[in-house]
Amino acid sequence: MEIISRTTKLKQDFELTRTLTISMLKSRYRKTFAGFLWVILSPIITYFVQAIIFKNILKVNIENYYLFLLSGIIPWIFITSTLNMTVTSFIAYRALIMAFKVEFWVFILTQTIDNLITLAASFLILFFFVQDLSIFYYWKMPLFLLATFILSIGCFILSFLLATIHVFFRDTQFVLQFLLNMLYFITPIFYPKELIPENYHWIINFNPLYYFVKPFQDIMWNYDVELFFIDISKAIGLIILLVFIFKRYWKKKSNEIYFRI
Amino acid sequence: MKSTSEFKDDIIVDIQDLSIGYNVPHYPATSWRDSFINLISSPLDYFFKEDDHVLLLDNINLKVRRGDRLGILGNNGSGKTSLCRYICGIYQTQQLNKIKINGHVKGIFDTEVAVLPELSGHENLELLSHFFYPELSSSERKQVIKEIEEFCELGKFIDAPFKLYSKGMKARLFLSLVSSRPSNLLVLDEVFNGADYFFNEKITQRIKETIFSSGAVIFISHSNALIQEVCNRVIVFKDKKIVFDGSPDDGIKFYTEQCSNVTLHANS
Fold this sequence. Notes:
The complex is a heterodimer of chains A (261) and B (268). With 261 residues, chain A is an all-alpha fold.
C-alpha cells in the first residue's frame, strides 16, 4: 500500500467514522415507529420511574434528589448501552473486517458517538424537567464537557477491550449483562455513597464504572470543583490502566483475532 | 511497512521470509464456561501445557513486478487468501516489515458484503467508497459514485434496500466500484467463480480492462481456464508454502498433478 502519513490515515479513519455514524443512525431509525424518539424517551422514562419510586414512595431523604439522580443515571445509561451495543461489534461486522482494510476501533467509536448523541438529547430534555439549568452557567459547562469527554474515552477503551475478549469468549455479552445488573446496585446512582457504612466503601472503590459517574455528581449536584478534579484524575488513572491492559491483550491476540471472528 | 523509495521501480510487492502463525490453547475454549470446565477438569494442563502453534504461511518469498498478472492456485486452506489479505493490509501482523508494497492496493474478497444492508444501494455505495477509496475528496467521491451508478445500470433499484438485492445485483455494484479507479495492485479473490454476472459482458469487460490496466494483478481462482485466460504467471500453494512459480501452463499442470490429494486444513 502507498505510504501515507499517520495524520492523513487518522483523518481518513475519522471521516469513515463520521459517515458510518450518520449511516448507522439512519439505518436504525428508518421505518421504525418514532425510532429516535423512543430511544431518547427510554432513559427519560427510566429516570422518572426511579425518581418517583425513590423520592415519593421510598421517601429517600436527600437534598435536591431529582438532580442527584439525574447526575448519576444519565452517565450510567450511557455506559451500559455503549458496552452492551459494542461488545458484539467485531462479530457483527465480521464481513467488513475480513473484506477491507479497516481499523477495529472505527466500529467501537461509531457506536460510542451514536450513544453520545442519544445521551445529549435525553440530557437536554431532562434538564428542563428538573428545572435546574445551572449547568449551563459559563464556569460549569467546560467541566461538564470535560466529564463527558472522559466518560466517552473510558467507555471507548472498555468497549474495545470487551469486544476483543468477546471474539474469544462468545458468552462475554451475557457475563457483561449480568455484571452490569450487579454493578448497578453497588454504584451510588440512586443513593449517595455516604449512605453506605464505612466498612463497605471498598466495594464502591473497586467498582470501575463509578469513577466515570462520580465527576458528574460533583459538578451537577455537589458543586464541588476541587472534588471534581480529584475524581477526574482518578478516572484518567483508570483509563491509563485500561489502555495498558488492552495493549497487552491486543499484542497477544492480534494475530489470532482474524481467525476467531 | 517499508517506504516506496526502497523499491526498484518495477517491483510492486516484495515479501521475504514471511512465516505467520499463532498460538492456540491446547484445549481451546470458546466461552467462559468452557474455559472454566477446562480449568476444573485438567488444571495442570490448563496452566502448564504449552499452546499449539497454527501455521498460516510458511516461509513465503514472493516478488510481484509491474505487468505481472499473477494467478494463485491451491487447495482450500493452503494459504492463498491469507497471503492476499496480508498483502492488502486487512490482516495486521507484527511482521509487516517483511511485506513491502509499492503503491495503492485494492482487494476484493467478497462481492456481496454490505456495510448496512437496511440502507439503499446508493447509501451502501457511498459507505463502501470510503472503505475502497479513503483518499478521495468529497467532490471526487460524488463524481465517482455518480459514474458507478450510471455504469452498473441498476436504475431505480439503486434506491432500494441493499438487503433485497440479488447476488448478481450486489456483484454489479461491487465490481463497478472496485474497477472504477486504477490501482498499482489489484487483488481479486475468486470474484468470478460461478456467478451469473461473469456472463454480463459489460462488467466482465471492464474488470478485464482493469486487470490489464493495473500495475499488477493477483488473481485467485479455482478455474484453470480463467487463470490461463487472465494470467501470465502462476504460483501454486501447498501446505502454506509456495511450491511452484512459473508460467500458467506449467503451473496448472503442476497443480493438477501434485496437489490433487492434499489434506484439507482449517483456517483457509
